[in-house]
Amino acid sequence: MRQPAMIFLAALPLAGCISFGAKPPPSLLDLTSTEQAAPGQTQDAATAKTIFIQTPSVPQALSTARVPVQATPTSIAYIKDAQWVEPPQRLFARLLADTMTARSGRVVLDAGQAFGDNGARLSGELRNFGIDAASSSAIVTFDAALVRAEGSKVEKQRFEAKVPVSRIDAASAGRALNRGANQVAAAVADWVGK
Question: Which residues form a coiled coil (predicted)?
C-alpha cells in the first residue's frame, strides 16, 4: 500500500511539466463565402456543366493552421493567437466551391463524383494567404490551372487580392483574409465562366 502512494507523490512534481500540445487560442478563424447557393436549390450534372476543384497546394509557410506575416522580404513570423479551424488550403477550396456554384451555376463535384466525369478541372497553388507587414495588408494569391474539358489544353492565370489591415492581430487578419479570399474566388469563378 505504501509503494503506490510513494509513486503518486513522486509523480506530482512532474504533473506541471507534462503538456499534450500548445494552449489553443480563445477562438479559431474560418472563411465564410459571401456567395452561396440558396438552400433547397437542386443541381443536376445532366443539365449543367460540372467542375472538380482540387485542394490547392501551398508553400511550407502555409502548411500550418497559423497565420503568417511577411515581416521582411526574407523572414516570416506568425500572428499570436491566430489559428485556422483547418488548413487554409481546404478552407479556400471550400469557399471557392461555394462561390463557383453561386456565380457560375456549375455543379461542383468531389473527388469520388468526378471520377469518369468529362467536366472541367481546376487546380493550382495558394501562393500567399497571410499578412504583409510592409504594406499592412492581407494578401491572397492563387495561381490557377484550368482544364475546361477532358483532353483540352491547360489554361493558367494568377489571381490576387490585397485588403488593408488596420492592426496585425487575429481578428483583423481573419476579416481581411476572408474578404481577400472572397475577391479571389469571385474572380476565379468569373474566369471559369458558365
Answer: none
Can you spell out the DSSP letters for 103-151?
HH-PEEE-HHHHTT--SEEEEEEEEEEEEETTTTEEEEEEEEEEE-STT
124-156: buried (b, 16+ CB within 10 Å) or exposed (e) per residue?
bbbbbbbbbbeeeebbbbbbbebbbeeeeeeee
Q: Name which of 51, 30, 44, 49 is nearest 144 in CA terms.
A: 51
Name, in order, each residue with C-beta under 8 angstroms of 27's C-beta and a sequence gap of 6 or more.
Answer: 170
**Cα distance between residue 1 and residue 24, in whole Å:** 39
Distance CA 26, CA 96 (A): 27
Spatial distance between the Cα atoms of 103 and 193, rounded to a whole number of angstroms: 8
Question: Domain coordinates of the chain in residue numbers?
Answer: 47-192
Of residues 25, 36, 22, 15, the one with CA closest to residue 185: 36
Q: Please name the residue that has the C-alpha cell 457560375.
A: 104
> Which pLDDT tens digit goes with each residue over 136-154?
999 999 999 999 886 789 9
Q: How many helices (H) and strands (E) does the chain have?
A: 4, 7
Topology of domain 47-192, CATH: Rossmann fold (3.40.50)
Amino acid, single-letter form, for residue 106: R
